[in-house]
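Exercise 7. Given the encoded structure of a 486-residue chain, write a plausible sequence.
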C-alpha cells in the first residue's frame, strides 16, 4: 500500500464490496481472509496518517491516575494551613467577598482539624488526612489552584475537558488520542466506579471522547459486584463469536473502502468491537484479586469495617493493576457520604455538617490513596505513574450557616505525585485567609499542560480539527508548571 493512501487495505487482497459478500461465494472467501488482525496491524503500522501524533519528546510518565474529589474539598481544612483563621474566628471577612452559591455567608471559621508538619519536608497537612500526611514527601502540593466556575456541572466539565459544557473530549480521551493505547486487551481510558458512585454533575460527558475518534471514550468498570462491565460474559462459544466478529469486520471493512475518507466513526466502531472481544478474558482476570497477598489487601483497607473505605480501596488496588497492564488513563470515583448536601454526584459538597461529612469522606479515601502511593513506589511504578488528586473548586474560609462552607473557586489546593513531579514540595499560596490565590496562581489549563508534558506531549501541538478550527485540551491557554517538575 502506498503511504499516501488512507483507505486502501494495508495487506492482503482487495477489500470486498458489500455486494460481493452478500452475493458471491468468492467474495465471501475473499472477505474472510481480511480478519481483525490484518486490519488492526495495518491501521497501526501501515498508514502513518492514522498513527498517534505523539509523543513529541521523551516522556517522564506513561500512565495517569486521576483521583477526582467531586463536590469541592475544603482546602483550609486539609492542605492549606491558615493560622489567621484562628486569630480572626467569628469576625467578618476583612476583604470584599464575591457572591457565593447560596449567599448565606457567616463569619470566619477556623479549620475543624489541626494542622501539623509531616514527613522530612515538614509540609503541613491537617489531621483530616493522617495517612496521606505520612506520604507528603512523595507529593507536590499546589496551594494556588483557581477555577472560573463555582457551579458543579460547569466546574466538573471544565476540570475534565477544558470547557464548561458537554461535547468536548475528556483529558483521558486526549491522552489516548495523543499516545495510542499501550494495553493490548484493555481500553486506554478506564473510569472505576463502585456500587454507590455515579458520574459527577455533568454526567458521562465528563468522560466523553467528544469529537475525537470514538475508541478514546472512557470505559466504565465496576470495581465490585459480579459483573464489572455489562455484557462482558460472552453469550456464545468463543470460537463461534470470533468467526461472527470476523465476518462483521469484513463487511465493515468493505463498506469503509466503498465510502472512502471521512468516516472515522466506522473505524472507531471496528476498533471498539475488537477491544470488547479481548476484554472478555482480560477484565475478569483484572478484577480477580485472588493473587494479591493479604498484606496488600489490608494495606488498601479492603478489610476495613467501613464499607466505603473498602470499596474505594478496591478501586485503588485495581488502578495499580491497570497501570501494570499498560492502561493510559484511570479515574477513580468517590462514594457519597449523604450528609450536608453531599450526594453521589458531588459527595464532598458539605454546605452544612462539614466536620462530619468531610470526616466520613476523608476516612473513605485517606488510607486507600496512601496505600496506592506506597504500593506504586515500592514496585518501582510511581516514577512512571502520575497520580493527581483534585476537585472542581475549594470552599470558603467563612462559614455557611453555622457549620458548613460554600464553594470557593478563587484559590484551593490539589496535589500530584510521581511521574517526574518534585517530591516534598509546595507550589503557590493563597492569602492569609485562604480565600484567593496570590502566589503563582494556577488553572486547570496549566495542570493539563503539565500532565501532557510529563507524558511526552506538547499541549500546543496536540490538536484536532473540528468544525473548522483546531481544538486542544488547553484551548488557547495553559503553561507547563516547570517549578513542580523534578
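Solution.
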Amino acid at each position: 500500500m502506498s503511504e499516501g493512501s488512507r483507505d486502501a487495505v494495508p495487506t492482503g487482497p482487495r477489500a470486498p464490496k458489500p455486494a460481493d459478500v452478500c452475493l458471491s461465494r468468492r467474495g465471501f472467501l475473499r472477505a474472510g481472509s481480511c480478519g481483525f488482525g490484518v486490519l488492526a496491524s495495518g491501521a497501526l503500522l501501515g498508514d502513518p496518517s492514522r498513527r498517534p501524533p505523539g509523543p513529541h519528546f521523551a516522556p517522564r510518565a506513561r500512565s495517569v491516575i486521576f483521583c477526582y474529589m467531586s463536590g469541592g474539598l475544603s482546602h483550609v481544612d486539609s492542605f492549606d494551613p491558615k493560622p489567621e483563621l484562628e486569630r480572626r474566628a467569628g469576625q467578618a471577612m476583612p476583604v470584599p467577598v464575591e457572591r457565593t452559591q447560596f449567599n448565606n455567608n457567616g463569619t470566619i471559621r477556623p479549620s475543624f482539624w489541626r494542622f501539623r508538619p509531616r514527613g522530612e519536608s515538614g509540609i503541613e497537612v491537617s489531621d483530616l488526612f493522617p495517612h496521606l500526611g505520612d506520604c507528603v514527601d512523595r507529593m507536590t502540593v499546589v496551594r494556588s489552584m483557581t477555577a472560573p466556575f463555582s457551579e458543579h456541572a460547569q466546574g466538573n466539565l471544565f476540570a475534565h475537558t477544558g470547557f464548561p459544557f458537554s461535547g468536548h473530549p475528556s483529558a483521558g480521551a486526549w491522552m489516548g488520542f495523543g499516545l495510542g493505547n499501550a494495553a493490548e486487551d484493555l481500553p486506554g481510558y478506564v473510569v472505576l466506579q463502585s456500587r454507590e458512585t455515579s458520574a459527577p454533575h455533568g454526567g458521562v460527558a465528563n468522560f466523553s471522547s467528544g469529537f475525537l475518534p470514538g475508541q478514546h471514550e472512557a470505559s466504565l468498570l465496576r470495581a465490585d459486584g459480579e459483573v464489572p462491565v455489562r455484557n462482558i460474559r460472552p453469550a456464545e462459544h468463543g470460537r463461534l463469536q470470533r468467526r461472527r466478529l470476523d465476518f462483521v469486520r469484513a463487511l465493515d471493512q468493505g463498506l469503509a473502502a466503498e465510502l472512502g475518507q471521512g468516516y472515522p466513526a466506522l473505524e472507531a466502531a471496528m476498533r471498539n468491537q475488537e477491544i470488547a472481544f479481548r476484554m472478555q478474558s482480560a477484565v475478569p482476570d483484572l478484577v480477580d484479586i485472588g493473587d494479591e497477598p493479604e498484606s496488600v489487601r489490608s494495606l488498601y483497607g479492603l478489610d476495613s469495617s467501613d464499607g466505603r473505605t473498602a470499596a474505594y480501596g478496591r478501586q485503588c488496588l485495581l488502578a495499580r493493576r491497570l497501570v501494570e497492564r499498560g492502561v493510559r488513563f484511570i479515574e477513580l470515583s468517590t462514594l457519597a457520604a449523604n450528609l450536608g448536601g453531599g450526594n453521589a454526584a458531588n459527595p464532598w459538597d458539605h454546605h452544612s455538617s462539614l466536620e462530619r461529612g468531610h470526616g466520613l469522606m476523608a476516612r473513605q479515601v485517606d488510607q486507600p490513596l496512601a496505600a496506592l502511593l506506597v504500593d506504586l513506589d515500592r514496585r518501582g511504578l510511581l516514577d512512571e505513574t502520575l497520580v493527581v488528586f483534585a476537585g472542581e473548586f475549594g470552599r470558603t474560609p467563612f462559614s455557611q450557616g453555622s457549620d458548613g462552607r460554600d464553594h470557593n473557586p478563587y484559590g484551593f489546593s490539589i496535589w500530584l505525585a510521581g511521574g517526574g513531579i518534585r517530591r516534598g514540595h509546595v507550589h503557590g499560596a493563597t492569602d492569609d485567609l485562604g480565600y484567593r490565590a496570590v502566589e503563582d496562581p494556577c488553572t486547570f489549563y496549566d495542570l493539563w499542560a503539565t500532565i501532557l508534558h510529563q507524558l511526552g506531549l506538547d499541549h500546543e501541538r496536540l490538536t484536532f480539527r473540528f468544525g473548522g478550527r483546531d481544538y486542544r485540551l488547553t484551548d488557547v491557554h495553559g503553561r507547563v508548571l516547570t517549578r513542580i517538575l523534578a
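Remark. The domain at 63-232+281-484 is CATH 3.40.720 (Alkaline Phosphatase, subunit A). Students should compare their own answers with the one above.
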